[in-house]
Amino acid sequence: MIRHARPADHAAIREINEAAFAQPDEARLIEALRAAGDVMFELVAEADGAVVGHILFSRLWADRTELIAALAPMAVHPEHQRKGLGGRLIEMGIETCREFGAHAVIVLGHPDYYPRFGFSADAASKVSSPYSGSPAFMALELERGALAEPMFVAYPDAFSEV
């Protein structure tokens, strides 16, 4: 089951991210984004009544008016990885971004994983950010042509503080 995260999930979300990434940086990022009010939404995956996966989307500040979302981070507890939960979180997250009115989603992620969901470095080629140029910097248009023209995006401060 995938649902929106609740405050009662925060401890489990921290544990999942620390376990999945084997360090606390992503958990700190999540908490900093929440504290700054920069979270668009968070989803969790449950298995047997326990939270075992998490994904967060925040708003990127663009030099245009379109809403651009950042996917980061996404984690599944190691005991539940390789079962499709991460993929389902990403798919539901993309659909929720559409419902929020986002025109595109940008991710800094594994270049062999995210393309299966439609993300590509090519789609991000006209987007300038501190992460531009990396093969891990990928984008997905939710509205056709949203990334056709050059744009600059700024990440929330939490991304540079953690």
TrEMBL record:
Ranges for domain N-acetyltransferase: 1-143
Its EC number(s): 2.3.-.-
GO molecular function ontology, one term from the record: acyltransferase activity
Keywords: Acyltransferase, Transferase
Entry-linked Pfam families: Acetyltransf_1
SUPFAM superfamilies on file: Acyl-CoA N-acyltransferases (Nat)
Acyltransferase among keywords: yes
Keyword check for Acyltransferase: yes
InterPro entries with a match to the protein in the record: Acyl_CoA_acyltransferase, GNAT_dom, MshD_Acetyltransferase
Protein name: GNAT family N-acetyltransferase
Originating organism: Phenylobacterium terrae
